[in-house]
Amino acid sequence: MDVKGAVLLIVLMMLAAGCAGTDTSDTDGVREITVKLSNFKITPSTIEVNQGDKVKLIVQNVEGTHNLYIDGYDLRTNAASAKDTQIIEFTADSAGEFATWCEVRDHKARGMEGRLVVN
Ligand SMILES: [Cu+2]
């Protein structure tokens, strides 16, 4: 492989790594995390941030009717049907683990639960 080929390969690997990573980015000091709601799961189920982070959750409802509730912080999106996107912005000032779930009917029991971990 010549040098050009090697450089191209490295660039492609970096692009692939960027795409395959968690849906989290840190722009302007704001932690942006995309959370997807579907039948019947929250993806990712664990949302992990650091205490003091400014957090922007981009909550995308990809199928069905759902919402996202975050215990402890008492934050929620409105129950809405797909394809709905809502934003939750907050500062993660309390450390700990907080349960998250969908409040629509029996969705929590069907698996729509997760957690927010503030380190
Ligand atoms: Cu739900």
Offer a concise description of the structure.
This protein is of the alpha+beta class. Strands 1, 2, 3, 5 and 10 form a 5-stranded mixed beta sheet that branches. A 5-stranded mixed beta sheet has the order 4-12-11-7-8, with no helix packed on it.
Supply the CATH architecture. Answer: Sandwich
State the share of residues found in helices, binned by percent. Answer: 10-25%
CATH C-level name? Mainly Beta
Instruction: Give the CA-CA distance, first to last residue.
Output: 44 Å
Give the low-pLDDT segments: 15-22
In the CATH scheme, what's the topology name? Immunoglobulin-like
| Percent range for β-strand residues | over 45%
Residue-averaged pLDDT: 87
SSE-based structural type:
alpha+beta
**Oligomer class:** single chain
Q: What's the tally of helices?
A: 1
Q: Tell me the number of strands.
A: 12
Task: Estimate the global geometry from the Cα principal axes.
Answer: globular
CATH superfamily: Cupredoxins -  blue copper proteins
Describe the biggest sheet? Answer: 5 strands, mixed
Ligands present: copper (II) ion
Radius of gyration: 17 Å
> Domains counted in the coordinates: how many?
1
Q: SSE order in H/E notation? A: HEEEEEEEEEEEE
